[in-house]
Structure formats: structure tokens, C-alpha cells
């Protein structure tokens, strides 16, 4: 019995040893398969990551290209707007000159007709003069002298009249020429506006995939807008609510493919200069100056610029949009934060082409003016703040396209 138990134990031990020897290779084989699977997944993930990084670099290149092209087209548009405005002013001056010359010609013609009428009643020879005044030789001589003196004066007036007619003809030709130039400039401007719309549509298409990510930020900003009592208060609240920037490598990281390319910081962002000049945001004429009395003890904290209909608005300097939307009685406004403690406030748009959080470089288009339905011209309000306090923007913008008269 004892021996039989020993045999059983020995057989059991051998069986277990055999099983273990057989299971060892199976376990190793299974582990090897799992390792292969993990390595395949890792390789696939690395490949996907490389593809994403390549896509991110491609998007970054595309947004840089679009940014540079929109800046170039916006500059051409503003130059064209300035040219059109200049041509229109020249046309006004030429038409005023034409009206004055026509009035002068009318007066000279009337005077010449009167003189010729008087002379037509006078004899044309001395003999006939003496015949008219037989008893008064002195009167006859005086009339003959007047006749001789009148002839050169009449010739002089006729020459002046001829010169005025020639000048009027030249003015008419100038007006025709300016009208042709104006038509060509307006046609080119229309093409540039269409090109700008196409470029902005491309930027929007690239950024559409990340739109949902902005909803939370937009809700937070809307809450700040509802609580802000003034532009100063709004800028202060936006500054406090802004997250602190994380340290980045030089040149900034490549954007993630799902990130809104408009929110990617440019490679170079310049500090706003403490002294001008910077680029003017619009082509136009100042109709309300900084510090101008508004009544009720209030003064203008910015300038109001009268512009052309559909005028292009651009960023005056590098910076980031910290607010885009309607605000109280200011209508649709943009607030651009510039490095160095400056903010630019722009108000009066018909539409904007930027979003909150978007980075900009100087000259990049941000929106356009509208077309007043009741005639007149649209007006853009421009305010510049340094450390939250308004300063005269014309100390920076007068080197550009904003004209100051008076």
C-alpha cells in the first residue's frame, strides 16, 4: 500500500513536470504574440503621429501663406481706395473749375455782345464820323479816337475768350480722363474685394473643424460682456480672465491638426511701439478728434474716421483679438491686444472676418465697413489704450491713410 502510494506520487509529479514543460513554450508563444501586437500598434501610432505632425506643418504653412496674401491684398485694396478717393476729389475740383469757367465765359460773351452792339451803331470811317457831327468837329474827333481804341480792346477780349474756351475744352478732356481712371480703379477694387473674399473663405474652411472648441470660450466672454459697464471695464475684465501663456519653444509649436489655425501664434509678434508710426486701420478722413467736446462734460476718447463704403479694415499692429462682437451702443466692435500694454478698439463694422483668440500681424484684414442706406458715408471709431487709459491714436496713425483736415 505504501509502495503503491509512492508510485502514484511519482507518476503525478512526472505528469506535472511534463505539463509544465509543455506549457512553457505555449506561454512564451502567447507573450510573443502580445508583444508583436503591442509593437504593431506602437508602430501604427507612431506612423499616425508622424502623419498628424506633417498635416500640422502643412496647415501652418498654409495659414502663413494665406496670412501673407491677405495682408498683400488688403494693402492693395487700401491703396486703391485712396486712389479712388483722390480721383473723386479731383473730379469735384475739375467740375467746379468747369462751372466757374462757364460762368466767366457767359459774362464775357454778354459784355462782348454789348460792346459789339454799340460799335455796330457807330460809323466805321472818319468821313462818316464828321458827317454825323458837322457842327461839332471836336465831338467827331473824339468819336473817331474811341473807335480806334475800341478795336484793339475788342481783339484782346476775343483772344481771352478764345483762351477760356480752350481751357474749358482741356478741363472737359481732364474730366473724361479722370472718369476713365476712376472706372478702372473701381473695377480693380471690385476684383480685389472678390479675391479677399476667396482668401478669407479658405481661411474659414481650414478653421471650421475647430469651431466647437471655441463655444466654451465664447460663452465665458458673453458673460463678461453682460457684466461690463464700459469699454475700459470690458478690457479690464478680459485681461483678468485671460489664461496665462505657457512657455513655448522659440518660434512656437506646430499646431495640432484639430486646432483652429487662426489661434496659432505667429513666429514673430512685435511689441507695439511707444512712439509711432503704426499702420492706419482704414483709409478715410477724421471727422471727430480725440479729446473733442461731446457735451455733458464728456470728451471723445478716440477718433471717428469717415470712410468709403465697404472700406477694408486692417490690424494696425501685431496682436491678438481678445473680443469680437456687439457691445452696448458701440455696435460691432473688435478689441486687439498688442504686446507692450496697448489695446486697439475698432467699432462701426458691417461685418468682421476674425474670431476671438485669433492672432494677427500688422496689415492683416479684420473686417469691412458697410454701405449706409440713407446716403452719407460710414464711420469707423478708433480708440487706442495704453495700460487701460485712452491716448490719442493720431500720434501713431497719422503716418498712414487717415487724413486730418482743419
UniProtKB/TrEMBL annotation:
Keywords of the record: Coiled coil, Hydrolase, Metal-binding, Metalloprotease, Protease, Zinc
Coiled-coil parts of chain: 28-97
UniProt cofactor(s): Zn(2+)
SUPFAM superfamilies recorded: Duplicated hybrid motif (SSF51261)
GO terms of biological process kind: proteolysis
Matches recorded under InterPro entries: Cell_wall_metabolism_enzyme, Dup_hybrid_motif, M23ase_b-sheet_dom
Protein name per its UniProtKB record: Septal ring factor EnvC (AmiA/AmiB activator)
Amino acid at each position: 500500500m505504501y509502495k503503491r502510494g509512492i508510485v502514484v506520487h511519482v507518476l503525478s509529479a512526472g505528469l506535472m513536470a511534463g505539463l509544465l514543460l509543455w506549457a512553457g513554450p505555449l506561454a512564451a508563444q502567447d507573450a510573443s504574440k502580445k508583444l508583436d501586437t503591442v509593437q504593431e500598434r506602437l508602430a501604427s501610432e507612431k506612423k499616425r503621429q508622424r502623419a498628424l505632425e506633417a498635416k500640422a506643418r502643412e496647415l501652418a504653412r498654409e495659414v502663413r501663406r494665406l496670412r501673407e496674401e491677405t495682408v498683400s491684398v488688403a494693402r492693395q485694396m487700401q491703396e486703391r481706395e485712396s486712389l479712388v478717393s483722390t480721383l473723386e476729389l479731383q473730379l469735384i475740383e475739375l467740375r467746379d473749375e468747369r462751372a466757374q469757367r462757364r460762368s466767366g465765359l457767359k459774362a464775357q460773351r454778354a459784355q462782348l455782345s454789348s460792346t459789339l452792339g454799340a460799335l455796330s451803331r457807330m460809323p466805321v470811317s472818319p468821313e462818316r464820323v464828321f458827317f454825323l457831327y458837322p457842327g461839332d468837329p471836336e465831338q467827331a474827333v473824339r468819336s473817331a479816337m474811341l473807335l480806334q481804341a475800341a478795336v484793339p480792346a475788342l481783339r484782346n477780349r476775343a483772344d481771352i475768350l478764345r483762351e477760356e474756351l480752350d481751357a474749358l475744352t482741356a478741363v472737359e478732356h481732364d474730366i473724361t480722363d479722370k472718369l476713365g481712371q476712376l472706372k478702372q480703379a473701381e473695377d480693380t477694387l471690385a476684383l480685389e474685394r472678390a479675391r479677399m473674399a476667396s482668401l478669407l473663405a479658405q481661411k474659414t474652411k481650414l478653421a471650421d473643424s475647430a469651431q466647437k472648441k471655441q463655444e466654451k470660450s465664447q460663452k465665458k466672454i458673453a458673460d463678461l460682456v453682460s457684466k461690463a459697464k464700459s469699454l475700459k471695464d470690458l478690457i479690464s475684465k478680459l485681461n483678468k480672465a485671460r489664461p496665462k501663456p505657457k512657455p513655448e519653444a522659440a518660434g512656437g509649436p506646430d499646431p495640432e491638426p484639430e486646432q483652429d489655425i487662426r489661434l496659432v501664434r505667429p513666429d514673430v509678434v512685435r511689441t507695439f511701439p511707444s512712439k509711432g508710426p503704426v499702420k492706419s486701420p482704414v483709409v478715410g478722413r477724421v471727422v471727430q478728434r480725440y479729446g473733442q467736446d461731446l457735451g455733458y462734460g464728456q470728451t471723445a476718447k478716440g477718433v471717428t474716421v469717415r470712410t468709403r463704403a465697404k472700406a477694408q479694415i486692417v490690424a494696425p499692429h501685431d496682436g491678438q483679438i481678445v473680443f469680437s462682437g456687439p457691445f452696448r451702443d458701440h455696435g460691432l466692435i473688435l478689441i486687439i491686444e498688442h504686446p507692450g500694454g496697448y489695446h486697439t478698439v475698432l467699432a462701426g463694422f458691417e461685418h468682421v472676418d476674425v474670431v476671438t483668440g485669433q492672432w494677427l500681424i500688422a496689415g492683416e484684414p479684420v473686417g469691412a465697413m458697410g454701405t449706409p442706406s440713407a446716403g452719407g458715408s460710414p464711420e469707423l471709431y478708433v480708440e487706442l489704450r495704453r495700460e487701460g487709459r485712452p491716448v490719442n491714436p493720431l500720434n501713431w496713425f497719422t503716418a498712414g491713410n487717415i487724413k486730418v483736415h482743419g
